[in-house]
Amino acid sequence: MVDVLVIGGGNAALCAALMAREAGASVLVVEASPREWRGGNSQHTRNLRCMHDAPQDVLIDAYPEEEYWQDLLKVTGGITDEHLARLTIRASSTCRDWMRRHGVHFQPPLSGALHVARTNAFFMGGGKALVNAYFRSAEKLGVQVRYDTPVVSVELDGDRFVAVRTTKGERIEAKSCVLAAGGFESNREWLREAWGQNERGEWPSDNFLIRGTRFNEGMLLKHMIDAGADSIGDPTQAHMVAIDARAPLYDGGICTRIDCVSLGVVVNREGQRFYDEGEDFWPKCYAIWGRLVAQQPGQIGYSIIDQKAIGRFMPPVFPGTTANTLAELARKLGLPEQAFVKTVEDYNAACRPGSFDHTALDDCATSGLAPAKTHWARPINTAPFYGYTLKPGVTFTYLGLKVNDRAAVHFGGRPSPNLFVAGEMMAGNVLGKGYTAGVGMAIGTAFGRIAGTQAAAAARKVEHATA
Q1: Which strand (E) or helix (H) includes residue 466?
Q2: 368: left (phi over 0), alpha (psi -120 to 50) or beta
Q3: Which positions fall inside the FAD-dependent oxidoreductase 2 FAD-binding domain (predicted)?
Q4: In what order do the strands lie in the sheet with 120-123?
């Protein structure tokens, strides 16, 4: 019997496996995907949000705990567990040396990379390089890894973990277990159930694209909730980004994001604006736009900029629709021409002169317009004009299992002695809603490492009890 069983193959799972192995436990990792698709959503990540009180290697200036906490508090609207959030924040300041020991390399942020040079450490080679480094290190340390092995149920004795069963009917026992199998974002049926129908008779989730892995179907999460594990979070809340409508259904990753929203206006299919595009810096608000687009007719939106914006944002992979007049752009995008042109002209007329600075919360705002644009408001009046069609892109869902600071799964408020959870399956404890760049990796790294350490300790207790 293995000491620690880790279910999942992303960042949180691998952090747990490595920590458990470093603590002397024998470890088995079971991953639902085939080897070539291993890594879960972590393969699509780029960076880790890090607290630091002074400049550190690839991080400039300082990003102290209180500022990090205030940023998280703002994007979640207060729907967060402060104790667990601060634990995550503090852990983010000390994990990079450990990551480097396991083969992860960091690089300075790219020019124009979402204003996160101060707050986020970027992985050399991105998330795929990170998970590959962790897998190499795990295998070198003797961690067993099995692919194509989805786990569908957990056998419990009260609140104590006993074994799991796979889709093949196999039963795997272990002295302790870490659940790190992701959310349910690629389970179309569950998304439909969570989002339901809107007042227009639409099923919004039918138009969602999944930015990450197709293997996060939430089977294990659903089983645990049905088995009486304490849950947390709203099933409709998720890290949702407005992405290129031409993106693939799964695994589009970072390259499908459209980052010019704050430099122009966004309209729905009726040609109407519906939210403040300049509310805050893009890394702090980009993840609300998927949900905003999901609430629009047809779950579709259009990001509109002009020539002045070009060069001020990370360019998307696919070129946008271009036109020499606003009327021509409306026709090419299939928008109602008169309504669209009026929307943009009304916006242009409402823009007040200011000192435009996209690196600061500047004083370029609209006046007398609803919704207002509170920063970076400049008339869209310089041809050529560009339009990007947007759809909601789900990264991961926030419904998860309730935990304490030892990453233990709870049953009726009581923590399990040998069942732990990390990553997306518990991120809702910290992220009740909203998102800020790199915090998902911070949560997964912090709680993956905690879960692995605790699982190894729990396995030792079982060993001593049976000796």
Answers
A1: helix 439-466
A2: left
A3: 3-430
A4: 47-49, 120-123, 106-107
Can the peptide bond before residue 109 be classed as cis, meaning omega within 30 degrees of 0? no
Amino acid at 450: I
Angle among Cα 176, 179, 181 to the nearest 5 degrees reads 150
What are the φ and ψ backbone dihedral angles of 288, each rounded to 5 degrees? -90, -15
> In the chain, what are the domains?
2-183+218-237+398-466 (3.50.50.60), 239-393 (3.90.700.10)
Tell how strand 171-179 and strand 414-421 pair up.
parallel
**pTM higher than 0.90:** yes
Torsion of CA 189, 195, 198, 204, to 10 degrees: -60
Q: Which residue has the tokens 């905690």?
A: 450
Residues 463, 144: Cα–Cα separation, whole Å: 20
Q: Would you call 106 helix, strand, or coil by DSSP?
A: strand
In this prediction, residue 282 carries a pLDDT of 84
Low-confidence ranges of the chain (pLDDT < 70): 109-115, 464, 466-467
pLDDT value, residue 112 = 52
The CA distance from 49 to 422, in Å, is 17
* Eight-class DSSP state of 124: T
Q: What integer pLDDT is reported at residue 283 of this predicted model?
A: 81
Closest CA to 261 of 236, 299, 292: 292
- Predicted local confidence at residue 117, as pLDDT: 79
DSSP 34-54: -GGGTTGGGGG--EEE--BSS
pLDDT at 287: 87
